[in-house]
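Hey all, sorry for the wall of text incoming. These are the two entities for the joint prediction.
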Amino acid sequence: MAGLRFDVLGIGNAIVDVIARAEDDFLVNHGMHKGGMALIDEAQAEALYEKMGPTIEVSGGSAANTIVGAASFGARAAFVGKVKKDTLGQVFAHDIRAAGVAFATPPAVDGSSTGRCYILVTPDGERTLNTYLGAAQDLHPNDIDPEAVAAAAITYLEGYLWDPKDAKDAFLKAAKIAHDAGRTVALTLSDSFCVDRWRDEFLDLIRGGTIDLLFANEAELHSLYQTSDFDTAVSALRADARLAVVTRSAKGCVIVTRENTQAVHATPVDRVVDTTGAGDLFAAGFLFGFARELANEDAARLGALAAAEVIQHLGARPEISLKALAQDNGLLD
Amino acid sequence: MAGLRFDVLGIGNAIVDVIARAEDDFLVNHGMHKGGMALIDEAQAEALYEKMGPTIEVSGGSAANTIVGAASFGARAAFVGKVKKDTLGQVFAHDIRAAGVAFATPPAVDGSSTGRCYILVTPDGERTLNTYLGAAQDLHPNDIDPEAVAAAAITYLEGYLWDPKDAKDAFLKAAKIAHDAGRTVALTLSDSFCVDRWRDEFLDLIRGGTIDLLFANEAELHSLYQTSDFDTAVSALRADARLAVVTRSAKGCVIVTRENTQAVHATPVDRVVDTTGAGDLFAAGFLFGFARELANEDAARLGALAAAEVIQHLGARPEISLKALAQDNGLLD
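and here's what came out:
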């Protein structure tokens, strides 16, 4: 894949994270599902922000975090997503470009402001998300550059794109371009509630071959197959997907193919500060390894390493070079 | 001082920090003084931001950080400083109020945008500041509420206020109100280059009794007395100041009075991530202890504890309750 312009091109919601620490009681009192992601409107966003403690602002967005992580490993990376031409939109564009990612989606000049994800981090490090999509939901098929998609070894999509209608169409357009050019299409299921909203359509995408590589965590997999039994869900997944990776937090991950199932350990950490971005960064490492044609287990080890880095600090993007970290751990030359 | 409305009221530049990691070469190539603070204009701010790596945004401002830290110890706290009514101004106001601090300064509706401090954190954890003051420099004597200042046991001022003319006048107005009401006036010297700009005026403030309690680090003290010898500088300080605390990074601090000099150890830390806010948070602990009429050494121990917390993560405001931390360490009941 060395002749291509990009190792990976991500398409997702362009979002700035607004992160605060909170007690479990705060989640209970506001009817939030701990660990989940809820969509909120602008009025709800303002009311929530009013009640939140002191925050930090840092660029986020699930696929965007993944693409920044892949770039940190050394991937040639691109991102497509919609911000508005406002302060937070400028922050998002600055940060993703400063991470070495090609980002050419023009910002919206009117309409909703740049999307925000309000993240509440409880004392156990778990994060609960409330997302105001804002400008991100205006991502349109016209924002997909066919030449860029065809020039990427992998096109990586987030399940969250399925929520806004235009973004879903952009998703399908990109997948078709990628396959017509003989490239790989990857999807993350994003969130168990997102899977609950779009279960049948996601299953159609996987079974119909629109998706070549699937990322899911345990909760998303259980939601997809409406079972609480992991082995039952994995068996169903083996029948449906060509290649899938299921992440299991501290239990590591399982790589699922038609032929077999391989488990890879998580990278141990001293202290979990904030789990935000764990799945996103796992995908970053795996996608980088996949693009470089490493064995699946070796790609998963890169994913585990990146996830371990990101859960040891606030925020969902790496604070250090993942390439250097992987070299220090003997996982890359 | 229990009958007063506030333990401490801070007046300072209202600033949002824009933090990025950088190599030492970056500082050298851009002619920056490592560890110092330089004032930049809006065009320089934009050019610098363009070249910086991915950032996080978090409310800052030296005195504002101190006041938030004091509130985290349980102080009744207020802050006076100027933002614009824009996105970053809303972030600043949200964060300081969410920390439990009374903040009533009306935002500017036109003029410069909310001030930003571009912070470059090198691999050793040292931080180098470039500040675009923006709306902060429009702080005016009219923004000083005499009733609030008279109702605060301590009025705390930052030396950085001496840079803009109107802010300097606001500083002097507040100091006079505080003294007329029989309260304490405290000052931090802020930065060795700031001291270099205003040395004679700062010495006049200290010798003339406008300042009852002075905070300085070693570099600022050496700049104030234009000497590289610590003992010489401390001797000069003893003659000039009623009460001063000199912070010395890992060497702890020295409390200087007319009568004697006492050293207090720094609180050991595992790993220095970002020294931004170390001095600000030391002042927070000391001011809280002073307002609660603790012995100077005990107040300094609270300062050392708060400084140790803040240098172990990115950003200049505490991530946990300093009251709980002090209780866990047996420093508060």
